[in-house]
Design goal:
By secondary structure, the chain is mainly beta. Helices cover 0% and strands 39% of the residues. Strand 5 and strand 6 form a beta hairpin. 25% of the residues are buried.
Length: 155
């Protein structure tokens, strides 16, 4: 049995934007991370089972107040998009330290996972896109590649 006092939980550490972190859960384990966000900010979170096992990642995001914001899970890839007005998903409605908890869907299946985390306001993993430019890259399962570009109103 695993006990987590969510409001103060930060077992693994901080998730900076543009992060790719690998982790591992034993039976009944819960890994916890923190990230900072402003109210109304956009964020994208992906958690993938890297061991192709019976592990099914379940992710919970808690507000700075300690209240549960959203829970999501899937068979091998968990996708959570947080944005204002998302009536069926995650919203970052408070400014402060958020908690991200990862566990197996039923707690009985251990597994290895990767987290891909992007705070849209602060992401620029791959640099600027140039007008009429060509960019090459590669994406692994659940990866999110980010770029920035200049534009004017009406473009």
């Amino acid at each position: 049995f695993q006990f987590k006092r969510v409001k103060y939980s930060n077992e693994i550490g901080s998730l900076p934007s543009d992060t790719h972190i690998s982790g591992s859960l034993s039976v009944g384990d819960i890994d916890s991370y923190t990230f900072e966000a402003q109210a109304g900010e956009y964020a994208h979170i992906r958690v993938v089972d890297t061991g192709a096992s019976a592990f099914q990642p379940r992710v919970r995001v808690y507000l700075p107040s300690g209240a549960l914001s959203h829970t999501a899970y899937d068979s091998s890839v968990m996708v959570m998009d947080c944005y204002p007005g998302n009536t069926y998903g995650c919203q970052l409605t408070q400014t402060g330290t958020y908690r991200l908890l990862i566990e197996g869907d039923n707690g009985y299946n251990p597994g290895d996972y990767d987290i891909h985390f992007k705070r849209v306001r602060y992401t620029n993993e791959n640099g600027h896109l140039q007008n009429d430019g060509v960019v090459s890259g590669s994406i692994t399962l659940c990866d999110i590649d980010t770029y920035v570009f200049e534009a004017e109103s009406g473009d």
